[in-house]
C-alpha cells in the first residue's frame, strides 16, 4: 500500500524557495503573481489555484507542448523497464535514438553524443574542437551557448561572465552577421573553432544577413576552422523548418541539438558531428563521458519526441501558425501603440517583440501574465520579449494570445501615450 505525502501550504513552499533554492527567484515569482504551476498539457499550464495559462514561454523547450502522450508513454515504459544503464553493457534505446536523430539531421552529420543539457552539448563541441587541434574560439557578440564554464566563455556578455573570470583563454567575439569581422578573426591566428547560432534567440531574435552561414562555411574551408552551429533553440521545427541553417549551403562539423529534443518531458541534448570531427571520440569512448549521458529514460524521450514531431507535422504547423501569430501581434501593435513597439519579427514559432524601452518590455510581460499568457524575456537584449509557443497550440488558444496582446497593447498605449 502506498501513501501520498501532502503538499505543503504555498507560504511554506515560498519559505522553502527562499531558504533552500534562490531568494531572488522567489521574489521574481512573486512579482509575476505568485502562481505555482502544477500540471501541463499541450499549450496549457494549470496552476495550483485553478488558473489556466497559455504557454508561449519555456525558452523553446515545448515545441510539442507539455506532456505529449507519445513522449510520456515512451518515458513511462522506459522507467518501468530500465531507466538508467549500467554503462558497461550495450544499451539498445540509445542506439535507436541516435539513429532516429541522425536520420533527421542534415546530410553528413551522423555521429551522436547525447548529454543532459544544451550547455553540456556546447562543452562537448568545444572539447571535440580541441581534440581536433582547434584551441582558439571565435564566437559572436550577444550569442548565447550556456553558462557552464566553457559554454560561458563563448557566451560573450559581461553580466554573466564577470563573476567567473578567468574563463577559457583565446576567445574572440565578433559582431553577429559580420562576415568581414569573422574573416579578420580567423585570419589573425591559428585555426579556430567558430560557434554560431542560425538566429540569436537570447540576443533578441536577431537574424543574420542571407547567406551568412554559407559564408562561414567558406571561411571554415579557407582558414581550416572548426564550425559549430548551435541549433539548440532553432532546431527541430522551431523556425518552420527542421533546422535553422537548412537554407544555407553549409554542413557544420558539429551541430548542437536540445530543448525540443526533450519532448517537453525529460532533459536531454546532443552534439551531432561529422565522422571526421567525431574521430577522436570514436577512437576512445572514455575521452568525454558522463554518468547520465545517454540515459535510457532521456534518450527514450528524445526518440519519441522526434517521432511525435513527424506525426504532428510540427514543422509545417510551426511555419503556418507562427506566420499567423506574428501577423496578428504586428497588426495589434500598429493599431494601438506603434510608438512603443519597435518591431515584431520572427520565423515559425520563434517570435520577438522589440519594445522601444526595456521598461516597456517588462510592463508588457506583466500585462500578458495578467491575461494568462506566458512569454519570456531575452537574456541578452532587455528590449525584446520572446514567444515560443508549441506547434500543438489550438485555434482557441491562439485567439486568446491575440486578444491578450490586443488588451495589453491598449493598456500600455493609455499608460504611455504618444504625445507624452
UniProtKB/TrEMBL annotation:
InterPro entries named among the record's database cross-references: Aminotrans_3 (IPR005814), Aminotrans_3_PPA_site (IPR049704), Class-III_PLP-dep_AT (IPR050103), PyrdxlP-dep_Trfase (IPR015424), PyrdxlP-dep_Trfase_major (IPR015421), PyrdxlP-dep_Trfase_small (IPR015422)
A Pfam family it matches: Aminotran_3
Example of a GO MF term: identical protein binding
Keywords per UniProt: Aminotransferase, Pyridoxal phosphate, Transferase
Known cofactor(s): pyridoxal 5'-phosphate
Protein family per UniProt: Belongs to the class-III pyridoxal-phosphate-dependent aminotransferase family.
This protein's name: Putrescine aminotransferase
Amino acid at each position: 500500500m502506498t501513501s501520498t505525502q501532502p503538499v505543503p501550504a504555498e507560504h511554506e513552499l515560498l519559505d522553502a524557495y527562499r531558504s533552500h533554492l534562490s531568494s531572488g527567484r522567489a521574489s521574481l515569482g512573486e512579482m509575476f503573481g505568485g502562481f505555482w504551476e502544477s500540471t501541463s498539457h499541450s499549450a496549457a499550464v494549470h496552476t495550483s489555484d485553478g488558473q489556466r495559462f497559455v504557454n508561449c514561454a519555456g525558452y523553446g523547450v515545448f515545441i510539442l507542448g507539455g506532456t505529449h502522450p507519445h513522449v510520456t508513454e515512451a518515458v513511462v515504459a522506459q522507467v518501468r523497464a530500465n531507466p538508467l544503464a549500467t554503462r558497461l553493457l550495450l544499451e539498445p534505446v540509445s542506439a535507436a535514438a541516435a539513429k532516429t536523430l541522425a536520420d533527421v539531421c542534415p546530410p553528413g552529420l551522423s555521429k551522436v553524443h547525447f548529454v543532459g543539457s544544451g550547455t553540456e552539448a556546447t562543452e562537448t563541441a568545444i572539447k571535440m574542437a580541441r581534440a581536433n587541434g582547434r584551441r582558439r574560439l571565435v564566437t559572436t557578440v550577444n550569442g548565447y551557448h550556456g553558462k557552464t564554464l566553457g559554454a560561458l566563455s563563448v557566451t560573450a556578455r559581461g553580466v554573466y561572465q564577470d563573476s567567473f573570470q578567468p574563463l577559457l583563454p583565446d576567445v574572440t567575439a565578433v559582431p553577429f552577421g559580420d562576415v568581414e569581422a569573422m574573416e579578420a578573426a580567423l585570419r589573425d591566428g591559428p585555426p579556430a573553432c567558430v560557434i554560431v547560432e542560425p538566429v540569436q534567440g537570447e540576443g533578441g531574435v536577431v537574424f543574420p544577413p542571407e547567406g551568412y552561414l554559407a559564408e562561414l562555411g567558406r571561411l571554415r574551408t579557407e582558414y581550416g576552422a572548426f564550425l559549430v552551429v548551435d541549433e539548440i533553440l532553432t532546431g527541430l521545427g522551431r523556425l518552420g523548418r527542421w533546422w535553422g541553417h537548412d537554407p544555407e549551403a553549409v554542413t557544420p562539423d558539429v551541430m548542437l541539438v536540445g530543448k525540443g529534443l526533450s519532448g517537453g518531458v525529460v532533459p536531454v541534448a546532443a552534439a551531432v558531428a561529422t565522422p571526421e570531427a567525431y574521430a577522436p571520440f570514436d577512437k576512445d569512448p572514455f575521452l568525454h563521458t558522463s554518468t547520465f549521458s545517454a540515459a535510457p529514460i532521456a534518450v527514450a524521450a528524445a526518440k519519441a519526441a522526434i517521432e511525435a514531431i513527424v506525426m504532428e507535422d510540427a514543422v509545417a504547423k510551426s511555419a503556418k501558425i507562427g506566420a499567423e501569430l506574428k501577423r496578428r501581434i504586428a497588426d495589434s501593435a500598429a493599431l494601438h501603440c506603434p510608438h512603443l513597439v519597435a518591431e515584431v519579427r520572427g520565423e515559425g514559432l520563434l517570435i520577438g517583440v522589440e519594445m522601444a524601452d526595456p521598461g516597456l518590455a517588462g510592463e508588457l510581460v506583466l500585462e500578458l501574465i495578467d491575461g494568462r499568457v506566458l512569454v519570456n524575456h531575452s537574456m541578452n537584449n532587455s528590449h525584446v520579449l520572446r514567444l515560443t509557443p508549441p506547434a500543438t497550440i489550438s485555434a482557441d488558444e491562439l485567439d486568446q494570445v491575440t486578444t491578450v496582446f490586443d488588451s495589453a497593447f491598449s493598456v500600455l498605449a493609455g499608460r504611455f501615450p504618444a504625445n507624452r
